[in-house]
């Protein structure tokens, strides 16, 4: 199976597979301006914590190319304006740490070069800015390449936790679409299947935006892996009445104590998993850890538009003026998590970030 | 606020408020044939355990009127054919006990009259059949009237459990639409509000058919009670992050040990309620108890069409051929339930049906 090209650099643009149109249509969009990148991230045309990290990093490279005129009169001015663009991209979605992490990494690379590297001090401004632009793209491309390698490593570590034959529950979308193309939690299923294990995936549809029903089912169908979609409310009943080998979820941000922010509904799944003795695994790159936050209480939780709950496919499902509450994420306590799987291996509780380094 | 006319007898027909068209349109349909009643129950045009009980009973009265010719040549033949119609209506939905209970009650009334009452033995067949028809309707009307009284009694007992001011979580629809017009769990909120208590209702949207988003919000808006709709997966996060006074749910069937079948997603709510110390109340008429079943394991769980998960409002949300699993109900263990509220009062655990009689 080919790796998905969720997000790539293509001839001076950020090319994304528009996830809002899946599973109906497979449409790629070439984003030529920072505003378009911000909009694509905000509207979930590109989504999934690692994927928006890569899209954000490429967005910074795009910003570096599109800054012109007075804004590039010298290195310092260029970097100051680029920082504004970085902040704009990072603000597109608040919960996933990867977006700020990836954009910040590109920015830091340029700042380091500017202060201590070959561009330090005076020099021909235009040539220096062009070199910084190239370096922004090179760093973003490294993040993308590394993301594919991280997925492969998470896939190996995650697959080792799965039985020769069994059923798992998947929440939201944690496949290739959530990353540069490999996947986080779902990559473990892809790898286990490649190894000859027989895994059946029970797919949480994942309201309100149905990433499970729309995207995970599309990926599993593409990979020829057996699955069935169910409503989120049915997952506890599923764990009570069938033998489930594992719940596999991703993460948008993990605090220093292991508390894990992920797509809303994850906490509910974790409570049911504990009740029915089902291992609950979080699979995410190590960059999802935000060790600056002592616990999940400090993780900002994005609240999205009420309209996502009020209508589907243009059809109203509530009275037009019905108030709605739409948190996009929730935080699962570390004590409910059986293990955190990163590219570095499997960390079991009690959680210690030292053991994950 | 007027009592909803969810289901009524009207000039030889069963008149229902078509719940599949709410909240967009308030359309009443007059069902003139048993097939139409069965179809309305199966498609959830009329839904809610008590409401389908009343609709079923009126359906039996309708069947009694529409049997003709050879099928009414004598009392015994008439009753035998009527029994076939009763079985057909009862089979429309398997989980709620109320449907079989209400249809069976009308049938038993006629059988009792036929064997020991004024119609016992020989007599003019036509006159006797007509009298039985009238009695079928009279018994169904009694069930309807009693349902309204049961709602009022459940409302009083339930309201007494609610604080002067607080937030509750509602699942599926348990208001007037779920009964002949009063309500089960939501009737407690209506009554508490009437008493001057300030109750805010957090409405589980209740996938797949969105009875919370569509119907509960419509009823709360009509009653002027403040509310907000959320996705089912957000309920655990709601209980973790806000002070919730109670979770209020209905029931489709309650086994002799207190295990309670209700709309899928109820079990998940109960697990979260226990985790976060939120009282979990089941509000249902005593007729919801099926004392012939020792535990919830014996309750039949209806599985509905995969299409309910695959599309919404005509829009596909999964690949067209995506397999889906769609249990309409789940069973919550008695140990997770804080109290059962019926028209007879409040029963606390450990569950004993003797104390509820």
Q: Could you characterize the architecture of this molecule?
A:
The structure is a homodimer of 357-residue chains. The first copy, chain A, is of the alpha/beta class. Chain A has 11 helices and 16 strands. In chain A, a hairpin with a 2-residue loop joins strand 1 and strand 2. In chain A, helix 2 runs parallel beside helix 4 and helix 4 packs across helix 5. The longest helix of chain A is centred in the middle third of the chain and has 35 residues.
The interface involving the most residues is between: A-B, 55 and 56 residues
Query: What is the arithmetic mean of pLDDT of chain A?
Result: 94
Q: Cα distance, first to last residue of chain A? A: 32 Å
Order of adjacent strands in the largest pleated sheet of chain A: 6-5-4-7-10-15-16
What is Rg of chain A?
21 Å
H/E order of the elements of chain A? EEEHHHHHEHEHEHEEEHEEHEEEEEH
Strand content of chain A: 15-25%
Low-confidence stretches of chain A: none
């Amino acid at each position: 199976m080919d790796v998905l090209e969720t997000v790539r650099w293509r001839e001076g643009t950020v090319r994304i597979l528009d996830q809002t149109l899946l599973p109906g249509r497979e449409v790629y969009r070439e984003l030529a301006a920072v505003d378009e990148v911000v909009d694509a991230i905000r509207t979930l045309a590109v989504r999934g914590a690692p994927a928006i990290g890569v899209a954000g990093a490429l967005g910074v490279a795009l910003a570096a190319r599109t800054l012109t005129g007075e804004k590039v009169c010298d290195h310092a001015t260029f970097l100051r304006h680029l920082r504004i663009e970085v902040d704009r991209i990072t603000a597109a979605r608040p919960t996933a740490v990867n977006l700020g992490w990836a954009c910040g990494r590109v920015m830091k690379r340029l700042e380091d070069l500017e202060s201590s590297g070959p561009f330090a001090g005076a020099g021909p401004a235009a040539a220096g800015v062009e070199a910084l632009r190239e370096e922004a793209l090179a760093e973003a491309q490294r993040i993308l390449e590394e993301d594919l390698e991280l997925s492969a490593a998470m896939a190996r570590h995650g697959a080792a936790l799965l039985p020769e034959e069994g059923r798992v529950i998947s929440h939201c979308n944690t496949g290739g679409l959530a990353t540069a193309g490999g996947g986080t939690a779902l990559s473990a299923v892809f790898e286990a299947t490649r190894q000859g294990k027989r895994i059946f995936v029970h797919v949480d549809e994942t309201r309100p935006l149905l990433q499970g029903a729309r995207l995970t089912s599309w990926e599993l169908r593409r990979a020829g892996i057996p699955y069935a979609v169910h409503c989120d409310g049915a997952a506890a009943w599923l764990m009570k009445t069938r033998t489930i080998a594992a719940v596999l979820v991703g993460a948008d941000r993990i605090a220093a104590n292991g508390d894990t922010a992920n797509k809303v509904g994850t906490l509910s799944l974790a409570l049911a998993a504990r009740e029915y003795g089902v291992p609950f695994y979080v699979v995410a790159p190590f960059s999802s850890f935000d060790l600056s936050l002592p616990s999940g209480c400090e993780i900002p939780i994005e609240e999205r538009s009420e309209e996502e709950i009020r209508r589907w496919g243009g059809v109203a499902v509530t009275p037009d003026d019905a108030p709605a509450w739409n948190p996009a994420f929730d935080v699962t306590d570390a004590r409910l998590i059986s293990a955190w799987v990163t590219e570095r291996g499997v960390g079991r509780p009690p959680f210690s970030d030292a053991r994950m380094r």
